[in-house]
Amino acid sequence: MEDTLKITCLHDRHVQLGARMSPFAGFDMPIQYSGIIDEHNAVRHAAGMFDVSHMGEIFVSGADARKFVNHIFTNDVGALEAGKILYGMMLYPDGGTVDDLLVYKEAAPDLFLLVVNAANIDKDYAWMKENSAGFEVSIDNASDSWGQIAVQGPRSQEYLCGIPELSPSAALGFYEFRHASLLGSDIIVSRTGYTGEDGFEIYAPHHVICHLWDLFLNAGVKPCGLGCRDTLRFEAGLPLYGDELSAEISPVMAGLSIFCKLDKEEFIGREALLNQKTCGVERKLVGIEIDDNAIPRAGYPVLNEAGEVLGTVTTGYHSISLDRSVCFALVDSASAALGTPVQIQIRHKTFPGRVVKKRFYQTNYKK
Hints:
- This protein has helices at about 10-15, 35-45, 65-70, 120-130, 155-160, 205-220, 225-235, 270-280; strands at about 20-25, 25-30, 50, 55-60, 85-90, 95-105, 110-115, 140, 145-150, 175-180, 185-190, 200-205, 220-225, 285-290, 300-305, 310-320, 325-330, 340-345, 350-355.
- The protein has 8 helices and 19 strands.
- The chain is about 20% helix and about 30% strand.
- The strands form 4 sheets. The protein has a 6-stranded mixed sheet, with helices on both faces.
């Protein structure tokens, strides 16, 4: 492992379990344990747990906290109640995406928790500080003090209830959270998920995270790496920052306008998004299914039937749950309609396919 890589509080446990470790977002992270297919299926049919302690936790407080969060966030926290969570983005003025994130409304009247992507922690914190001028707020990057476990899958609630201190959290609704106490520490339990399945996230100090990991492991929850986390979120049609969202890819281009409340009075990037909605965008993110088992990887060209380049694959797999080769791709808007015939160039061959809905897999979980 390179000296410059960070490690999470669970790093030693991953190594002891024989996980395949690899750099990710500046951390030495587990990519797989028993294998991506085995772990993927465990989450789809039972339960698996992920170390997501590399994610960032930034608290915003102060008299102008709600006003400030609404200023930097595309969704609307104006009436957000305590214990509720919203998904949305922070944008550059031109509509490009700084990051996608979750906003948690704490019980204290002027306190929010923003959960951001690991690779963007420093950038996001700097962006928030830069845009806080004129607001009475305090911005606290607490990422190094918190760890996080995500327990995902149709049996996740069952395993959560096996730990007395966590069992009341089984009553949480989708995109809700609550506080609990364990080992003398305050912890946060939420129900959001990033796999398309039911799931819970537990935020806690490092010693509590290590304790909970051991409890879930002893209860039979399968440890899972970031490899299957990607295949799971991809099948469920969920974006990954850096692939389906970036400084060059706006929420409108990514088909995520529902999380951008353009009827808000203002937020950074609002005017750019309004213009994109009114005038259209040159490129759109689509789903594509190809008529072959060949795997369309990120960066592969997307062509029309005449062989002209329409765009580029952003994420692609042979779907584990569906046994089909599918991908996300950013293509010319004129070729983004469902059913549009396309070709994917894989090395020196092309494979025919068509534009389909981005949500490839429909879970049985009722939100």
